[in-house]
Amino acid sequence: MDDVKIRYSDSDLQEFKEIILKKIEKAEEDLKLLQASYKNGSDNGTDDTSPQFKSFEEGSDTMAKEANMQLAIRQEKFIRDLKNALVRIENKTYGICRVTGKLIQKERLKLVPHATLSIEAKRKQ
């Protein structure tokens, strides 16, 4: 039987699943903080204290909100990638490189649990 697919054992997959679930939990907390920072006009009530700096502060606030929105978008993508990794765990295809079909190194998956490419394939990009 040469067509047996090389894959991670169920215990390995369970270990990766726990890592990913923890990362999702942390990422969702971070996302809530980012969203709160640009959705709430978190204002300290100092609007009228120094009118000469008001326009500068408003521009600065807008830039900070935009930066936080960009971070939130990246965070949402990260969470989506992690959830896709959970699906691959359920399908028992997790940790298999999309390009080479070989197992992605365990160390890489622990650092980048949503990876779908081995280092070898990543370098060829």
Describe what you observe in this structure.
This protein is an all-alpha fold and 125 residues long. It has one domain: Four Helix Bundle (Hemerythrin (Met), subunit A). It is built from four helices and no strands. The protein has helices spanning 10-39, 54-90, 106-111, 119-124. The longest helix is centred in the middle third of the chain and has 37 residues, at 54-90. The mean pLDDT is 87.
CATH architecture level-2 label: Up-down Bundle
The poorly predicted ranges are none
- Report the CATH C-level class: Mainly Alpha
- The oligomeric state is single chain
Keywords:
mainly alpha; 4 helices
Question: Any chance you could write out the topology, listing elements then pairs?
Answer:
Blueprint: H1 10-39, H2 54-90, H3 106-111, H4 119-124
Helix pairs in contact: 1-2
Keywords: Coiled coil, Metal-binding, Zinc, Zinc-finger
Protein name: TraR/DksA family transcriptional regulator
Domain Zinc finger DksA/TraR C4-type: 93-124
